[in-house]
Amino acid sequence: MVAALLADQFESxxxxxxxxxxxxxxxxxxxxxxxxxxxxxxxxxxQSQIEDLRAWLTTVVxxxxxDRLRSAAVRRENYVGQWLPEPVVTxxxxxxxxxxxxxxxxxxxxxxAALVVLDQLTPPQRVAFVLHEGLGxxxxxxxxILEITAEAARQLAARARRAVREQTxxxxxxxxxxxxxxxxxxxxxxxxxxxxxxVLHPAAVMIGDSGGTTPTARNVIVGPDKVARLFxxxxxxxxLDRPEDDFLATGVEFVRVNGQLGALLRGRPxxxxxxxxxxxxxxxxxxxxxxxxxxxxxxxxxxxxxxKN
Length: 309
Fold this sequence. Notes:
Largest sheet: 7 strands, mixed
Strand order of the largest sheet: 1-4-5-6-7-2-3
Distance between the termini: 33 Å
CATH superfamily of the largest domain: PhyR, sigma-like (SL) domain
Number of helices: 13
CATH class of the largest domain: Mainly Alpha
Strand content: 5-15%
CATH topology of the largest domain: Butyryl-CoA Dehydrogenase, subunit A, domain 3
Structural class: alpha+beta
Shape: elongated
């Protein structure tokens, strides 16, 4: 009876814990693992010593995520190409089954562009910022997690706050975002580099993350002309620009990528002398009605956050 009650109490906090863990790590799998590990630790803890279960679990998850962030920093040293957060992909019409993480990413602070900025922070800065700015956790408690002074925790959060404010683009209305993404697909359908460049922002960037598994933008591509050429070059490489193929009409599915309209490109085997095309997810950032950021996520290990039912 006690175990069942404890399990019910934990489940009531699962959505909150997943939100914290995902924003801290930028990884669906790491977030889910951290939340599961927090349950195991709760089951083995003395309940009489836990005054506030939500706060206790938040602290446990934050410490676990800090360890994962430090481990990820080590992994990135040998990672091939750019590193992007792991997206949460849901149907345009909405999630058909209850999914706390899919609900969470509808909030502005979970948009892909915001997570890209968080990825540029040090692990301690990220923990301090997310816990204080997002949850209002006192600096003293953050200091205990990071094993530093409260003043040092305050300084970490302040530096992170400045970086996030300076680098995160202002959000636009969903209708403006969706119109820009649809214009991009229409321009790609023409195969005209000038038409594609015309729907891209003057400061357009494209970042690809495949972990070396498939060609993409191994470095950050800057400028509408270069981004347009890369888009069309990828289509030509895989034979996806052939009129008889019509891949852009049949092989691309509009989806929500962290709450905003993006695209899921279906993989296909090699054929007619063209190499196999792996599945990938593309997310976008829109500024002034134009595509400012394109995030091409093609590493299979980063596609575990696809929720299609």
